[in-house]
Amino acid sequence: MIKVTNIGKKVLVADTELTILDALSLNVEAGESLAIVGPSGSGKSTLLGIMAGLDTPTNGTVHIDGQDITAMDEEGRAAVRARHVGFVFQSFHLLPALTALENVALPLELQKGGDAMDIAGSYLQRVGLADRTGHYPRQLSGGEQQRVAVARAFACKPTILFADEPTGNLDSVTGETINDLLFELNREAGTTLVIVTHEHSLASRCSRQLHLKSGLQFTPVTEMSVKC
Question: How many CB atoms lie within 10 A of CB 205?
Fold first, then answer.
């Protein structure tokens, strides 16, 4: 489903070239769950952004479902994301002027699909927010807002879901509830799941882990049998 080949990312900082990622390659199979882990500054979120087509690499290629998104312009990458990709971010990214129901329905309406409100309502019920559909983000707790974000992501039935520190702003109990939802909906939909996380408990639930250190892939001694 995702093929990353020899990806590198360099940026200029105060006239100095900084290497964020260097010669990184991996494949992610359809339906697989992959955790990208590592210390702060190791390039985790940069890699996820490149894999999702939100950022471009300095060199290397990324294929999604056989399509080379690194050879596309932004319009082409956006079209691939619309067909294949869903997102859950640490900071929720809900529109404050829309209700929970409207936030979930909006991407469905942009896809010009029918019954957007009905589908949105069913997913909010699925994540336990059937009684909060008319509430605005400011009226919801952090955990409730993230459940709206999860419902929005899965309602579009993506083939790939990218999650960047999805429980980073939540307490441990609420975070575990969100983790359960991600994997439960992932199993039901057969979605390919790629998660950036610093939480060992979340990473351990994935079928594979990719460990980064200073932009390079490395294999911990305890996981020498894992090949990424």
Answer: 17
